[in-house]
Amino acid sequence: MILTLDVGNSQIFAGVFEEDKLRLQFRKSSKNQVSSDEIGVFFRTVLRENDIDPTRLKQISISSVVPDLVHSLTGACQKYFDIQPFLLRPGAKTGLKIRYHNPLEVGSDRIANAIAAARLYPGKNVLVIDFGTATTFSAVTADRDYLGGPILPGLRLSMEALESGTARLPVVEIVKPQELMPKSTVESIQSGLYFGHLAMARELGRQIREQCFRKGDSITLGTGGFGRIFDKEKAFDVFSPDLVLQGLRFALEMNESERK
Question: How far is CA 94 from the centre of its chain?
Fold first, then answer.
């Protein structure tokens, strides 16, 4: 079994694979500093509560955009699972040609998404829209060129900015509103967040496809914690909630020989 861990700015998104089947997904907040013991005990407890024997884990693959958590995670893997984890970071094999001025700038979560997109849709141009803490666009060509794309504040960051930067606007639940033109402040904020983000995803997606994928068919994938609320809006072709976890599994597979 393989444990995959995507460490984001808000949450650790985890998955357990048995061969190529994703057996379990779970999340943990990544906002608070925690020790390796706290993390290790949490992981073992979650596995047991879901009828998975922790001793069956043989490999662990990690991507992280929170450097401060890497040490604790690595220690937890070593102490509680007796496994030296694989870290997706600069120098690892990805199967991609990263077309950035400085490839070291690209977040490992974006690379994991791109690895999965290229593997799952070989020979196709793929645009990944990740609706997380930030909303990111990642274009991957049929030749596996990673072109990247815009990064914008995600839904929750946008809501928090409204709340903290204004005197009277409240925090609201992030949901799909019933109408574009509501009759209350709360619903107006929800409408602005939802429909504004949807319009942005559609229009930026269109422009990126036109600019980057002039030749050949393309597919647009939606992923990330907030992606599901746009699943029926045709902002993307396929919603793939576990894309980053699949990418971490593929990355581990590509780098396995280097680790032996």
Answer: 16
2-87 against 97-247: fold identical: yes
Catalytic residue among 109, 143, 237, 242: 109
What would be the CATH architecture of the domain defined by 97-247?
Answer: 2-Layer Sandwich (3.30)
Please, where are the H alpha helices in the chain?
36-49, 67-81, 108-120, 155-165, 185-212, 243-255
pLDDT in tens, 196-244: 999 999 999 999 999 999 867 899 999 998 999 999 898 999 999 999 9
Length of the chain: 260
Q: Is 6 a catalytic residue?
A: no
Cβ contact 54:1 at 8 Å: no
pLDDT tens string 53-106: 999 999 999 999 988 899 999 999 999 999 999 999 988 999 999 999 999 999
The residues near 63 (Cβ < 8 Å, ≥ 6 apart) are 5, 6, 7, 87, 88, 108, 109, 111, 112, 244, 247, 248, 251
Topology given in CATH for the domain delimited by 2-87: Nucleotidyltransferase; domain 5 (3.30.420)
Could you tell me the residue ranges of all domains in the chain?
2-87, 97-247
Rounded distance between C-alpha atoms, residue 10 and residue 2, angstroms? 23
Are 81 and 54 contacting, i.e. CB atoms less than 8 angstroms apart? yes
